[in-house]
Structure formats: structure tokens, C-alpha cells
Amino acid sequence: MRTRSNFEKRVADELAYKGVSCYLPCLHEVRQWKDRRKEIRRPLFAGYVFARFADSGAMRIHVLSASGAVRILGRGSQIEAIPDAEIDSVRAMLAANVRCYAHPFLREGSRVRVRRGPLRGLEGLLIRFKNDARLVVSVGLLSQAVAAEIDIGDVEYAGQNPAVGKTVA
Questions:
Q1: Assessment of whether the complete model's pTM goes beyond 0.70
Q2: Which of 45, 51, 100, 145 sits 20 to 30 Å CA-CA off 68?
Q3: CATH code of the region 2-95
């Protein structure tokens, strides 16, 4: 479900108090201030809390009455469930005690811009070849393209996807 900004923990706590099964994946970070260092828990997915409940009108109202709850995700009046395997994968990554961080969801064919490195500022299409991420820069008039291997962490969405014709956000 979607929450107000910085209300994730409050919504999760209130849902748990109401008896609704919920999960708020958090990252542990050490923050440095001038006078101290402190370990904090920051939500992995800002603005979202995972909740498991029966799809009924009464339960929807019960869940949405949590302070800071905005809406239940889905299409129209249908709730869209997140597969258990995806939630289990997130839990496993956070429990594995490896360095994790939030990353934008990038699909093959997305128009991307390189944020850092020797290709900084270039835009192109993101593709995969075997297990490597590649940036493809096309020259439409020549019907030719050039590809370069890039680190997936160095790219961000660049907006318009020419293959689809819609803004990708």
C-alpha cells in the first residue's frame, strides 16, 4: 500500500496493532552529524508498506484508516497482490547481511542516461547481452548503433522510450 511521505513506520506499527500482517523492509544506515554518529533504519521502498489482508470492503476501510495510509495498490477496484516469491526475495537479501540499496526499476529497452563514469551524460537504450548491461546509442539516419558495457548502477531513466512512445517514470 502507498503511504504519506515518511509515514511508513507509523502505518506499519498501526497495522500491526490492528492485527493486520504487514512488512516494512528497512535498511540500516549509519548517519553522521557534527556531534554524533547514529545507526538508523530507513525504509527500502519509500512510501510503501506491504500488508496481507482479505479483500473485502470492511478490511479495506480497516487498513486505509491507519494514520498516513494513502491507498491500496491495484487497478480500479481490483487489488493487485505482490507475489510471495518477490517479498521472500527482498527478505532474503536484507537478511543475508550484504550491502543492499534501493535501485530504480529499469527494464530492457528503457531510455536511460549515464550518471557517472567515462560515459556520463550519454543517453541510449538499456539492453542485456548475456549477463551484462549495455548502453546502445543509435544513429537513426544511418540505421546503425554502437553499444558499450556499463554498470547498471550508473544509469537513470532518461524519459521518453522511443519503442513505446510513452514517458517512462
A1: no
A2: 100
A3: 3.30.70.940
